[in-house]
Every structure is written in structure tokens, then in C-alpha cells.
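testing teh design pipeline on a random one, pls ignore if ur not involved
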């Protein structure tokens, strides 16, 4: 028996008390069955959206058109959706929705068997399509005809790969063949939605498996023309061990072409911050310098998460000596952050420098302190600056 949290249990009970059917469905039920703690809760009901709004004190009309109302109890958000059937999909994504009184019809229109089960505390588990068996056997399988499911909504192609990756499941043969044959339909899906599914796949613990599925199905090359190049590079490194938050930037950075990386990520609607970081990783990967200089440079420029960034670079370069070099330099007190340099642009203004010259001299000072952290004092740096300026005059 599934031990439901109080909040979704209250929603089911109140709907039942007013004569409506209500069942826990979707990913939260799958998580319960896998002994995982659900992050979101979905309830399917024959109550119409207006009934749900009337019954509960705090609601958000999340998607009234598609029958969804978000109920909030004790700060917990629970999506309550009217039983529905989906017809006449537009652009292989957007269906025309019709409400129904049938739980079977509602579950039949869902994507995969492991997401097409329902649960009620009194009725137990309801599984029309073999979802529990597929969970036991670790299989991702479409409900019904896989060609129809992917043709209706092409985003399911990426969701299929994402679920297989996150759960470490295999994709059932007919589902995988349909996925491959209809992959071109992804060109009709918005870049934002592709971004979300790709990111979830890459940020999974078993992300290397997702990379493999994207490659073997050629789905990767549909969404990113250079995917084969990325995969062939990343298949040679321990991509799974890159810190989760850096996996997406690292995925693109391995192309070692900052201009191309920025173009691809902008096209897929990634946020500017993530794009900038990917380009920075790309620059670190292509720096032609000693290991000492690389570590000093990264430590100098990065104020936060230095060790995680160095771990990412060491994995992408397949060179774990980088972390040893970092530890050695840190122990020898030979590392410094840019923010700790004991000279600023204001000090150079006092010396009479102006405009571009300030930036030029500051960069020279940074290089000097980077190589000589023991000389990071105002007097030492000013002596260096005066000598530098004197040499410039001569």
C-alpha cells in the first residue's frame, strides 16, 4: 500500500466526498512505486475545473483550457486535471482536448506505460497497460502504438530518452524504432522545450547513457548538427562525474570553439549566464600553457566553485593531475584571486593614468601577481608598475 502525503490525500478525499472520482497519477505515482519521494503531485478526476476551484480554498487556474487547476494545501502544490482525451494534434505537439468521465480513456492517451497508472487508497493500483510490469523490468514503452504516440507529440521522443536516462531503463524495441523513424518531427518542437528535456537528460546521474541513446537514435544530430562530434569526444571521458550544474556547459564546451558554442546555445534558448560559462570552459580547454599556469589562471578568475570547475576541466581533458597541481599550489600558498590583488583602477588614476591605459596596465599587473602571488602588496605592485611605465617610455 502506498503511503500518500497528507496534502494529496486531502484532495482525493474532498473530491470523493462531493461525489467525484479522483486518482493519483503520472510521475508521482511512478516515484512512489520506485520507492522515491515525489517532488510533484498530479491527480486526475472527473470533476470539471470550475468544480475544483469551487471546492478548494486556494487554487491557481494553471491550465483551465486543458482542465488543470493547481490546488495549494499547506504550501504544497497539487495539479488536479479533469479526465480528458486528446484529439487532432497541431504541429505534432498541441492537442484539442475533450473532457471525459472515463479514467481508462484518460490513461490511454498518456505517453508511456510507467506514466499511465492510477492509484486510489481504497481501490489500490489501477494498471490497464502493463506499467507495473515495465517498472519491474526497467522498460520504457509507449502506451499503445508508439508511432501514434510520437506522431501526436514529438516531444515524447526526447522525454522517452530522458526517462530511460534518469531511471536507467532500456527503451522497448518497437518504441525505439518508432522514435528513430519519427525523429525529424522534433524540428517542429520549440527550442525552449528541447532545451528543457536535453538539460534534464544531461544533468542525470547516468548522463553518459543518455548521450549514447541520443547518438544511437540520431536524435542528437536532429537537435544539434554537431552532436556526433560532441558524443565522440564525451564518450572518451568520465562525463557522469562532472558536477551536475556544470554538465550542460561542459557538453557544449567540448567543441572547443567559443563562437560555435555561443551560437548553438543561443539557438536552443539557453540563458546568457550558462552560455557565458560554457564559453569560459571552452577557453580554459583551449589554453596553451603549463598545468601550473592553467590552475593559477582558473583560481585567479573564479571566486566560487573553483574546485568543481577544476574537476570539470580535469575530466574534459582526461588529466586528473590538474587537481593534484591545484592541491600542491594551494598548500604552497601560490594561488590568488583577482579580487585580492592589492591595486585597483583608482590607484592608477592617482598615478595619472587614463582611459585604455588603465585597463592595459591592470592586465599587466594581474599577470604579474598571478605569477608572483608572494609580491601581492601595494608597494611591490607600484614598484612594478613604475618600472613597466618607465620601460614603456624608453
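output:
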Amino acid at each position: 500500500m502506498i503511503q500518500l502525503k497528507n496534502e494529496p490525500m486531502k484532495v482525493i478525499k474532498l473530491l470523493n466526498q462531493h461525489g467525484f472520482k479522483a486518482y493519483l497519477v503520472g510521475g508521482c505515482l511512478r516515484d512512489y512505486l520506485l520507492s522515491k519521494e515525489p517532488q510533484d503531485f498530479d491527480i486526475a478526476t472527473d470533476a470539471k475545473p470550475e468544480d475544483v476551484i469551487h471546492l478548494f480554498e486556494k487554487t491557481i487556474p494553471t491550465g483551465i483550457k486543458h482542465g488543470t487547476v493547481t490546488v495549494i494545501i499547506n504550501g504544497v502544490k497539487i495539479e488536479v486535471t479533469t479526465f480528458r482525451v486528446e484529439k487532432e494534434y497541431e504541429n505534432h505537439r498541441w492537442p484539442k482536448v475533450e473532457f471525459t468521465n472515463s479514467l481508462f480513456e484518460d490513461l490511454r492517451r498518456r505517453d508511456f506505460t510507467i506514466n499511465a497508472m492510477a492509484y486510489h487508497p481504497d481501490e489500490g493500483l489501477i494498471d490497464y497497460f502493463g506499467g507495473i510490469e515495465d517498472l519491474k523490468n526497467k522498460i520504457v514503452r509507449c502506451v499503445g502504438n508508439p508511432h501514434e504516440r510520437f506522431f501526436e507529440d514529438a516531444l515524447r521522443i526526447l522525454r522517452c530518452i530522458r526517462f530511460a536516462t534518469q531511471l536507467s531503463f532500456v527503451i522497448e524495441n518497437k518504441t525505439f524504432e518508432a522514435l528513430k523513424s519519427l525523429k525529424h518531427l522534433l524540428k517542429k518542437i520549440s527550442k525552449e522545450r528541447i532545451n528543457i528535456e536535453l538539460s534534464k537528460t544531461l544533468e542525470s546521474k547516468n548522463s553518459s547513457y543518455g548521450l549514447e541513446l541520443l547518438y544511437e537514435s540520431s536524435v542528437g544530430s536532429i537537435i544539434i548538427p554537431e552532436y556526433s562530434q560532441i558524443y565522440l569526444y564525451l564518450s572518451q571521458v568520465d562525463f557522469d562525474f562532472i558536477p551536475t550544474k556544470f554538465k550542460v556547459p561542459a557538453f557544449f564546451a567540448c567543441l572547443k570553439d567559443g563562437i560555435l558554442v555561443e551560437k548553438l546555445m543561443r539557438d536552443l534558448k539557453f540563458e546568457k549566464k550558462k552560455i557565458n560559462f560554457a564559453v569560459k570552459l571552452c577557453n580554459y580547454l583551449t589554453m596553451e600553457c603549463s598545468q601550473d599556469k592553467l590552475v593559477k589562471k582558473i583560481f585567479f578568475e573564479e571566486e566560487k566553485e573553483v574546485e568543481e570547475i577544476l574537476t570539470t576541466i580535469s575530466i574534459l581533458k582526461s588529466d586528473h593531475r590538474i587537481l593534484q597541481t591545484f592541491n600542491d599550489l594551494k598548500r604552497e600558498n601560490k594561488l590568488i584571486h583577482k579580487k585580492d590583488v592589492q591595486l585597483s583602477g583608482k590607484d592608477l588614476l592617482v598615478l595619472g593614468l587614463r582611459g585604455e591605459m588603465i585597463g592595459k596596465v591592470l592586465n599587466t599587473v594581474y599577470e604579474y601577481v598571478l605569477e608572483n602571488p608572494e609580491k601581492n602588496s601595494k608597494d611591490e605592485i607600484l614598484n612594478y608598475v613604475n618600472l613597466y611605465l618607465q620601460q614603456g617610455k624608453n
